[in-house]
Every structure is written in C-alpha cells, then in structure tokens.
Amino acid sequence: MSELLPWIVALPLLASLVCLLLPSRGGLVGVSAAVASLVLAIWSVPEVVRHGGLEHTLGGWAPGLGIALRADALSALLLGMTALVALASSVYATAYFARRSQQRRFWPLWLMLWAALNALYLAGDLGVLLEEPFRVLAALADPLVAVGESGAGLLHHAGLHAEIDQLAGLG
To answer: How many Å apart are CA 58 and CA 148, to the nearest integer?
Structure first.
C-alpha cells in the first residue's frame, strides 16, 4: 500500500494547478482536495500500524539519486492533524476571501504550501527533507508569476527563481 504515499503529496499539487487553470472554482477545488487529503491521511494510519511503516521510492531509484518517501506513526499523525486543520482552514477561507482576486492568489499558494508540508512529513532522507520544498517552489513558481505579474515583477522573479534553483541544487 506504499503507492498511497506519492498521492498524499501529489493531490494538493494537482489541485493547485487546477486552481491556476480554473481560478473561479478555487474554493470548490480547494475544499475538495482538503476532504480527499483528509481521507488519504486517515487511510494511511491503519496501513502504517499494520505494516510498521510505509516506504515508497519514486521512479524505483534508490534514495540519494531518487526520492524516498517514508511514513511512520509520527508522520501519519502529523499528516492527519495537518489535513484536519487544513480542511477547517479551507472551509473558512471560502467565506473569508470573498473577492475573486484574493481567491485567485490564495488557493494555489495554500495548496502548494500544504503539499510542501506533506513532503516534509514523508521525507525519506535528509536530501528530500532539505530540497523538496525548494523543488516544489522552483517547479511551480513560473505559473504563479504568470497569473499576477508583468514587467519589473518578472525580472525580480527571474532572480528569485535562480536563487531557489541554487538552494535546491537544480542549477
């Protein structure tokens, strides 16, 4: 059942991309992703208890070269608590961010933050723990900038993107 682990990280990431493509449906997509993430987190607890932990290597590559995801009792507990708080926050945010411009910016960032937290909880080695949040930012920074900025903001973003790439070891 270790195939469950990548989905715990991927679900909020995919939802953030959907929010970028369909900003008018951000609240619906965000709350739906929150409910689905809570279900995945709750589903992972008995699997962790039954197997004493879960481990998944992305792409089948060994840790060091590939990304290893591991879930133990503590990470399952943290995933569940985060999903529960994030669900409550997502429901509240649907009413709090009433203007469309606020929703357009909030939902993708909120879901990416959540995905980065999940990746940190499931980090299988120190490399993932240190690099994963920066890789998430580097991979998804371009669409976010395209949504809201132009001109000087893009130049500033180019420098920021280069710094993030350096921190993540991508450049």
So the answer is: 33
Per-position b or e across 87-102, b if 16+ CB within 10 A of its CB = beebeebbeebeeeee
Distance CA 28, CA 40 (A): 18
Which long-range CB contacts under 8 A does 91-96 form with residues at least 24 apart? 91/31, 91/34, 93/27, 93/30, 94/27, 94/30, 94/31
Give the Cα-Cα-Cα angle 160, 150, 102 (nearest 5 degrees): 90
Whole-number Å distance between alpha carbons of 32 and 86: 11
Lowest mean pLDDT of 31-40, 51-60, 95-104, 161-170, name the range.
161-170
pLDDT of residue 83: 92
